[in-house]
């Protein structure tokens, strides 16, 4: 595909967004941008400074934070001022506090600006919660991925097992439900399906099946046929 499309992927926790976004980006030779990693990186900084509830302090932290992505052979790495934070931003304390941090309007304003800058040339697959609604409202292609909470918790459970991380299925499920609640009820750009987004229920679908559906949809779009 030659067009420099903007592809927005939104949906709740563990719907499979980042997994399929990476595959799509590779197939299309596009950039992949994980916006959740940016909110996670700020949360990681804020936990160290005891600043997760202080919006002005969070904004100051962001001022000092250069957040960048780098493609390596083993996948995409996230850097905070050149420190590799790829692993630490996935820790449970970050996961359990990121929705509170990301609800602050000034935090969103700054990160949305940075995300729009990253996406400005197109040829990008960006995933998150508000990409189709707030970050890239004019994206040519928008997806909204969902799956039952049981399946999403089971995906995380299996992912943890494969990394030898002991977790409890019920606890994971509760954490996901809590994050979904906070992300869908916050005042500024809550998680919601954009009107022009293609809804894909991935319950019972494996990764390849989801990717095939997405590619079929991209190819079916009339906006592309006109180009
Ligand atoms: O764990 P998972 O991969 O589902 O989440 P993530 O994409 O890493 O995002 C972590 C959190 O960041 C979400 O639960 C949201 O609170 C927040 N987020 C957001 O508010 N807006 C985005 N565009 C991306 C993430
Ligand atoms: O980015 P998001 O939080 O939406 O989800 P993810 O991190 O891409 O996917 C969470 C887990 O579900 C990963 O271990 C994926 O391999 C797995 N997955 C799956 O089993 N089936 C799918 N259709 C999509 C993802």
Task: Give the SSE layout.
Elements: E1 6-10, H1 17-28, E2 31-34, H2 35-49, H3 55-63, E3 67-72, E4 75-80, E5 83-84, H4 92-101, H5 105-119, E6 124-128, H6 131-135, E7 141-146, H7 149-162, H8 169-185, E8 198-201, H9 207-220, H10 222-225
Parallel strand pairs: 1-6, 1-7, 2-6, 7-8
Antiparallel strand pairs: 3-4, 4-5
This protein binds cytidine-5'-diphosphate (2 copies).
Main location: cytoplasm
GO cellular component, one term: cytosol
Subcellular location: Cytoplasm
Structure in words:
There is one protein chain. By secondary structure, the chain is an alpha/beta fold. The protein has a single domain (6-216), classed as 3-Layer(aba) Sandwich (Rossmann fold), CATH 3.40.50.300. It has helices spanning 17-28, 35-49, 55-63, 92-101, 105-119, 131-135, 149-162, 169-185, 207-220, 222-225; strands at residues 6-10, 31-34, 67-72, 75-80, 83-84, 124-128, 141-146, 198-201. The strands form 2 sheets. It has a 5-stranded parallel beta sheet with strand order 2-6-1-7-8, with helices on both faces. Helix 1 packs across helix 9, helix 2 (35-49) crosses helix 4 (92-101) and helix 7 (149-162) packs across helix 8 (169-185). The longest helix has 17 residues, at 169-185. The mean pLDDT is 95. Bound molecules: cytidine-5'-diphosphate (2 copies). One cytidine-5'-diphosphate is lined by residues 13-14, 18, 35-36, 39-40, 98-99, 102, 128-131, 179, 183.
